[in-house]
Amino acid sequence: MIRRDSADHASGRSRPAGRGTSAARACAATLALLLLAACFSLDQPQRRVQLEALLQEPELLVIVDLRASLAFVTAGRALTFSTGFAAGEQLRAEFDLPPPAPGFAEAFVTALREKPRLAAVRLRVIDLGEAEAILRERGAGQVFYLHTGEWRLYYDLSLDHYVMKVWLNAQIEPAAQVVAGSGTYALPERLWEASCTFRGPEKAQPIEAWRAEGGTLLRQVLAEAQQRCGQKAADLFVEFLEGGEAQGAFDFGDLPKEPGPR
Questions:
Q1: Hey, which of 40, 100, 205, 244 would disulfide with 44, CB 3.0 to 4.6 Å?
Q2: Is the model's pTM score more than 0.90?
Q3: pLDDT over threshold 50, residue 225
Q4: What's the helix, strand, coil split of the chain in %, to 5?
């Protein structure tokens, strides 16, 4: 089960900084990783060899970053913390919407376990907020890191109908990089990565439809994004293991259709 470390962590709010020495160590670790990235890059065969070796380890960590702010973007309003993000967080709180990453991780791990070549691999899912000690212990050891790149409810060409966009990412990288806070950087030493963007529903809906029945549509579209992206990321991982292909981004569908006359 994926547990939330704290209300602050689950909501995406940053914690107060620790002592200056801790901040300095974190900055030094990040700089070291950036310098390493600049000097070292693996080609696809090397990545596959290292991934195969990784799969032989007794346990693989799947780190889930709960931080994600929902943005609600309306016509004529700038996407700022005083407008879009504030409105989105109010909507999220009103309907008790979960962050996207845990459901994405659940679907991803379930799909991996269904793959014959990965059936014996032991995967341990843990919230980033609870994983600091073990990540520091693992250091250069590789872990899965799953997080949300973007989550928003935004208007279509009609200006008063809305669609949800969820951008989810799965990657394998050094534990030290994740705990240092640089897990989302596009560094070339990353063994594997895949991203998935989901937009739904197919036809944009007025805000009244999104709010109806206790936010049922909000939860349904989010759940579909989590499930489809989790499955697709697992498929991409196996395809990369087998042929060195299908690493990169995947986008589910075109922009939603503009609604017809009402």
A1: 244
A2: no
A3: yes
A4: 45, 25, 30
